[in-house]
Amino acid sequence: MPTLQKPVNHTLFFRSLAILLFSLPKTSVAGTQITYIDDQFGDTVTGALPTYLPPSLWIQGSICSACAFHPDSTKTYDSTWHDATTNISATVQFNFTVMSSTTLDVYCLLPNHKSPGVSTNSFYNLSFVLDGQTLAQTFVHSSDLSGNIQYNAGVLSLSNLDPVAHTVSMIALQNSVFHFDFATYT
Ligand SMILES: *[C@@H]1O[C@H](CO)[C@@H](O)[C@H](O)[C@H]1NC(C)=O
Ligand SMILES: *[C@@H]1O[C@H](CO)[C@@H](O)[C@H](O)[C@H]1NC(C)=O
Ligand SMILES: *[C@@H]1O[C@H](CO)[C@@H](O)[C@H](O)[C@H]1NC(C)=O
Q1: pLDDT, tens digit, for every residue of 167-180?
Q2: Shortest CA distance to 107 belongs to which of 133, 126, 121, 120?
Q3: Ligand 3 contacts CB of residue 140 (under 6 A)
Q4: How far apart are CA 180 and CA 163, in angstroms?
Q5: How far is the CA of 176 from the centre of ligand 3 (A)?
Q6: Domains, the chain
């Protein structure tokens, strides 16, 4: 069984990058720092972990032999993702706080079944709640019947968030798959 070890210190990398960028002439940089929220290891700055509800529906996909799809872990962030395929709602929730106006992006893995069936379902239907308000946008994806898995697929992108603490919930609706890999905020 593969162990879940964090391979790279991304925080350190981006801090080094930020220091490097700040030492360059002012006109060439925006001074933006990216923070990652990994499905398994959580926020690279605060260490806060996402919550998965209900817990019984969720499994760590990188060590799941019974899962319908087997993504290549080397193509995922930190070699991990959370897998739910459900006939009821499954939710991922995380919190993050920023000091200035910010952007949030969420990335998932999108399997594409070759033939339809209950066990090979790869239909996505996600809804999103930000600070208690259901967002108008949703994410829907139907299989292209290729059998391929898409990596780093953006499912949610928000900008100009207020500089306060935020709570994001992502809800997979009935008969949806959900392979959550990571989120970033700047
Ligand atoms: C979901 O699937 C489980 C297992 O197959 C079944 O027992 C349950 O009744 C289903 N629930 C709904 C709401 O379809
Ligand atoms: C996010 O913050 C809210 C309010 O403090 C709290 O109820 C919730 O449990 C937190 N969720 C996570 C995933 O930490
Ligand atoms: C996604 O789920 C919502 C809520 O159940 C539903 O209204 C909508 O029709 C679904 N979208 C698709 C494409 O099935």
Answers
A1: 999 999 878 899 99
A2: 126
A3: yes
A4: 25
A5: 10
A6: 28-185 (2.60.120.260)
